[in-house]
C-alpha cells in the first residue's frame, strides 16, 4: 500500500499519509510531485510527559487512539464500544477521488471515508459513512468530517445572523482553544449558516491564505474549529444528531452530509470564485437555459388581500416595467386571510378567486410573463381543515403541548399518508395550473421534532429532499425557490433541488448590502433573490432613494417586491430603468467571476463581476465616508497589458450633498490602461451615505 497518496486539481493538492489510519498532511496550493522522503520528513517528535506514541490527526480522530479533542465518531452499544480504533482495510483510488475503507472488528464498525476533488473548480467533497457490522444495535451519536489545517491558519471568519439579518460575519483569533457552532433549529437556519473560513493572519477579500468550508445540509449541524495544545488545528463539520436519532441495527448504515471545502492563496475572492464555479457546474440545474427572469412577488404589495382583478392590474403594470415572472405569494388558498390560518389546505380560495386562478394566469402569460405561486408544504395551521382531520400528522412528541411558531406546526413528512397528501396536493396544483415556479417557504423551527416519538430531524430533512425530488421528477420544468422566512434554508444540498434563494425578508437596501455580501462568499448571484422594495422598507421603516435600492438589487437574481399600481409614474420609470440595466448586464452578472475589493474606507463596499471582455463595479457608500476625500479605486483583476474604457452607468440622481464639484471625468468615457487602473487608480466622486455608483469597464480591442 502506497505510503503517501496525492490527489490533484487544477490548482490544489490534497496529500494523505497512510498508516494505520490515513491522515491529511497537506490541503492547499498544488505541489508538483511528492518526494519519497516526505514520509520521513513529516514524522513528528514525541513530547515528554505525554503518550509514548504519536497520535495522527486522522480523517476520523479517535478517542481510543489518544486524540483528546473532539473525536470524529462517537457512539456506543449500551455503553460498550464507545472508543473505536480502526484499521485501514482498503484504499480505492479513482481519478481525483479516493475512498478509505476502515474496520474496527472489536467494536463491530466499518467506516468509509470518501474524498472527491473536482479538478476544474478545486472544490473538495468529503463524506463519511458508518456501518454496524456487529450483532447488536449501535447507537451513533456523532460522525463528523475532519479537516486538519496548518499552523499558520490563525484567524477564523464565522457566520451568525437572525431573521432579516442573515449572513453576518465575525472574525476570531485562532491560536488556543476553539470555536463551536451548534444548530438545533431543524433547518439550515438564519442563525447558524453552516460555513466557516480559516486563514492566515489578517486574510482579506484580496489577500491571504484561506480555507473555506460549507456543510451541505438543511437540518441540524455542528461546526467546530479547534487548536490542540500541541498546536495542530482542525475543522470539523457534521450533522448534529439528537439523542437516539441514529440507532443502527446490525447491517444498518449512516452517511454524513457532504463537507465542501476549498483553499485559496488569494484571499476570500479566490474561495468564492471556486465555490461559485463548483455550484454552477455541479449543483444548480436550471430546467431551461433561458436567462434568469426578473420577478415581481406580490407579498409586500398586497399581503393577504387578494383580489384577482387588482392582481391582474398589478401584473399589467409589472410587465410594463420589464418584469418577466409574476409570483402570487401567500394568501391564495382556502381560508388564508391572515397568518394564523389555513396552512395545509392547498386548494384555491374560491371566495377570493370566484373565476378560478386560470384567468389570472392567462393574463400574466398574455403580458409575456411566467406565473409562479407560493406554498409552504411542510406546515399546518391549527385552524385548518387538515389539522382538524389529521392532528396526528404533526411532527411532535405525544403527550406534550408544543409551542407553535407563527401560529403553525410542522408536518411529519416521514408519515407516509402525510407525505402522499402533500405530494398529491402539489402535484395536482402543478398539473391543474400553468405554474412555472414555486416559491417554497418554511416559516418556523422544529421543536420536539419526533417521528413515532423518536428524534427525527435527520428523517424529516431526508423526507423533504424526497418530496422535492418526487415533484421535480413529475414536473421537471418547474423552478423552485427555497425560502424560509427569508434566508433560513440556504445550503448546497437544498440547492441541488431548487433554483433560487430568497436571501432575506429584509428588503432594506442597506441591510441587504451586508446580507448579500455574506451570501456571495458561497453562492453566485444568479441564485440570490434580490428585490427592489418600496421607498420605506417594511421590515425596518428605513427610507432609501431608488439609487440605493436599485443598485442593491442589480447584482443578484433581480426582482421587485411592492405594489406597482400604487407607485408613482416616476418610481415606476425608475424601476424600469434598473430592470433594463440589469437585463443589459444580466449575462455577465449571472455567469462572470465575482469579486469584492478591500476598500480603503471601511464604510464602503466595493464589489463587481468580470469576464475577459468587461466588468461591472459597484461602489456602495454604507455610512458617512471615513475621510473627506475618497481613496482612488484600484482594481486588481484587470489585465495590466490591456487598455480599458471606463464609464459610469449608474449614480445618484440628486443626492451629492458632500461634493461641491465633481471630478471632470464623470459623465465621460475615459480610457485607462490595466496597469494604471491597478496601480494608480481612478478618483471617485464623494458619495453620500447610503448611495451607490456603478461603473462599466470594457476592454478596448
Ligand atoms: C415568509 C417569506 C415571505 C413571504 C411570507 C408569506 O415570511 O419569507 O417572503 O412569502 O412568508 O407568508
Automatic annotation (TrEMBL):
<dbReference type="InterPro" id="IPR002252">
    <property type="entry name" value="Glyco_hydro_36"/>
</dbReference>
<keyword id="KW-0378">Hydrolase</keyword>
<protein>
    <recommendedName>
        <fullName>Alpha-galactosidase</fullName>
        <ecNumber>3.2.1.22</ecNumber>
    </recommendedName>
</protein>
<dbReference type="Pfam" id="PF02065">
    <property type="entry name" value="Melibiase"/>
</dbReference>
<dbReference type="InterPro" id="IPR013785">
    <property type="entry name" value="Aldolase_TIM"/>
</dbReference>
<dbReference type="InterPro" id="IPR000111">
    <property type="entry name" value="Glyco_hydro_27/36_CS"/>
</dbReference>
<comment type="similarity">
    <text>Belongs to the glycosyl hydrolase.</text>
</comment>
<dbReference type="Pfam" id="PF16875">
    <property type="entry name" value="Glyco_hydro_36N"/>
</dbReference>
<dbReference type="InterPro" id="IPR038417">
    <property type="entry name" value="Alpga-gal_N_sf"/>
</dbReference>
<dbReference type="InterPro" id="IPR017853">
    <property type="entry name" value="GH"/>
</dbReference>
<keyword id="KW-0326">Glycosidase</keyword>
<feature type="domain" description="Glycosyl hydrolase family 36 N-terminal">
    <location>
        <begin position="22"/>
        <end position="248"/>
    </location>
</feature>
<dbReference type="GO" id="GO:0004557">
    <property type="term" value="F:alpha-galactosidase activity"/>
</dbReference>
<dbReference type="InterPro" id="IPR031704">
    <property type="entry name" value="Glyco_hydro_36_N"/>
</dbReference>
<dbReference type="InterPro" id="IPR050985">
    <property type="entry name" value="Alpha-glycosidase_related"/>
</dbReference>
Amino acid at each position: 500500500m502506497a505510503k503517501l497518496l496525492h490527489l490533484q486539481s487544477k490548482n490544489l493538492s490534497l496529500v494523505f499519509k497512510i498508516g494505520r489510519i490515513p491522515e491529511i498532511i497537506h490541503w492547499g496550493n498544488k505541489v508538483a510531485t511528492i518526494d519519497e522522503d516526505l514520509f520521513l520528513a513529516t514524522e513528528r517528535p514525541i513530547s515528554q510527559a505525554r503518550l509514548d506514541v504519536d497520535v495522527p490527526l486522522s480523517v476520523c480522530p479517535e478517542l481510543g487512539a489518544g486524540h483528546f479533542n473532539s473525536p470524529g465518531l462517537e457512539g456506543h452499544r449500551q455503553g460498550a464500544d464507545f472508543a473505536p480504533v480502526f484499521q485501514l482495510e482498503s484504499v480505492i483510488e479513482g481519478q481525483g477521488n479516493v475512498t478509505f475503507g476502515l474496520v474496527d472488528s472489536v467494536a463491530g464498525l466499518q467506516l468509509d471515508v470518501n474524498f472527491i476533488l473536482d479538478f476544474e473548480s478545486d472544490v473538495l467533497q468529503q463524506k463519511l459513512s458508518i456501518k454496524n457490522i456487529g450483532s447488536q444495535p449501535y447507537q451513533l451519536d456523532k460522525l463528523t468530517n475532519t479537516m486538519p489545517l496548518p499552523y499558520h491558519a490563525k484567524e477564523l471568519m464565522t457566520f451568525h445572523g437572525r431573521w432579516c439579518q442573515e449572513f453576518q460575519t465575525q472574525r476570531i483569533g485562532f491560536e488556543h482553544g476553539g470555536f463551536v457552532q451548534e444548530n438545533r433549529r431543524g433547518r439550515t437556519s438564519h442563525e447558524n449558516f453552516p460555513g466557516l473560513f480559516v486563514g492566515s493572519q489578517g486574510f482579506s477579500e484580496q489577500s491571504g491564505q484561506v480555507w473555506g468550508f460549507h456543510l451541505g445540509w438543511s437540518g441540524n449541524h455542528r461546526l467546530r474549529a479547534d487548536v490542540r495544545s500541541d498546536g495542530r488545528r482542525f475543522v470539523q463539520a457534521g450533522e448534529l444528531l439528537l439523542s437516539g436519532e441514529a440507532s443502527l441495527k446490525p447491517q444498518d448504515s449512516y452517511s454524513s452530509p457532504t463537507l465542501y471545502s476549498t483553499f485559496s492563496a488569494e484571499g476570500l475572492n479566490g474561495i468564492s470564485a471556486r465555490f461559485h464555479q463548483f455550484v454552477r457546474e455541479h449543483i444548480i440545474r436550471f430546467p431551461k437555459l433561458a436567462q434568469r427572469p426578473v420577478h415581481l412577488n406580490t407579498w409586500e404589495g398586497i399581503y393577504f388581500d387578494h383580489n384577482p382583478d387588482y392582481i391582474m392590474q398589478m401584473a399589467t403594470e409589472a410587465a410594463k416595467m420589464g418584469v418577466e415572472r409574476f409570483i402570487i405569494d401567500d394568501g391564495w388558498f382556502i381560508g388564508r386571510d391572515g397568518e394564523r390560518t389555513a396552512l395545509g389546505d392547498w386548494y384555491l380560495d374560491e371566495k377570493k378567486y370566484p373565476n378560478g386562478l386560470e384567468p389570472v394566469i392567462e393574463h400574466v402569460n398574455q403580458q409575456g410573463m411566467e406565473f409562479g405561486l407560493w406554498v409552504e408544504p411542510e406546515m399546518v395551521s391549527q385552524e385548518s381543515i387538515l389539522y382538524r382531520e389529521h392532528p396526528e400528522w404533526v411532527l411532535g412528541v405525544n403527550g406534550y403541548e408544543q409551542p407553535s411558531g407563527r401560529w403553525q406546526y410542522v408536518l411529519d413528512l416521514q408519515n407516509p399518508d402525510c407525505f402522499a397528501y402533500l405530494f398529491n396536493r402539489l402535484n395536482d396544483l402543478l398539473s391543474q395550473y400553468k405554474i412555472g415556479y414555486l416559491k417554497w417557504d418554511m416559516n418556523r423551527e422544529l421543536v420536539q421534532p419526533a417521528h413515532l416519538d423518536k428524534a427525527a430531524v435527520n428523517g424529516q430533512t431526508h423526507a423533504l429532499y424526497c418530496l422535492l425530488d418526487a415533484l421535480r421528477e413529475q414536473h421537471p420544468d418547474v423552478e423552485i425557490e427555497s425560502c424560509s422566512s427569508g434566508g433560513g434554508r440556504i445550503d448546497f444540498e437544498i440547492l441541488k433541488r431548487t433554483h433560487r434563494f430568497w436571501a432575506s425578508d429584509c428588503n432594506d437596501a442597506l441591510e441587504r448590502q451586508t446580507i448579500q455580501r455574506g451570501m456571495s462568499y458561497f453562492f453566485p448571484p444568479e441564485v440570490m433573490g434580490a428585490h427592489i422594495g418600496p421607498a420605506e422598507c417594511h421590515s425596518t421603516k428605513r427610507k432609501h432613494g431608488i439609487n440605493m435600492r436599485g443598485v442593491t438589487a442589480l447584482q443578484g437574481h433581480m426582482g421587485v417586491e411592492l405594489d406597482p399600481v400604487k407607485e408613482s409614474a416616476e418610481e415606476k420609470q425608475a424601476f424600469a430603468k434598473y430592470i433594463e440595466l440589469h437585463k443589459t448586464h444580466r449575462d455577465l452578472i449571472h455567469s462572470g467571476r465575482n469579486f469584492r475589493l478591500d476598500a480603503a474606507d471601511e464604510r464602503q463596499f466595493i464589489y463587481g463581476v468580470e469576464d475577459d471582455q468587461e466588468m461591472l463595479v459597484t461602489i456602495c457608500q454604507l455610512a458617512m465616508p471615513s475621510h473627506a476625500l475618497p481613496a482612488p479605486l484600484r482594481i486588481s483583476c484587470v489585465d495590466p497589458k490591456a487598455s480599458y474604457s471606463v464609464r459610469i452607468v449608474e449614480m445618484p440622481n440628486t443626492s451629492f450633498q458632500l461634493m461641491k464639484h465633481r471630478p471632470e471625468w464623470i459623465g465621460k468615457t475615459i480610457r485607462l490602461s490595466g496597469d494604471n487602473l491597478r496601480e494608480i487608480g481612478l478618483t471617485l466622486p464623494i458619495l453620500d451615505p447610503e448611495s451607490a455608483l456603478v461603473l462599466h469597464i470594457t476592454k478596448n480591442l
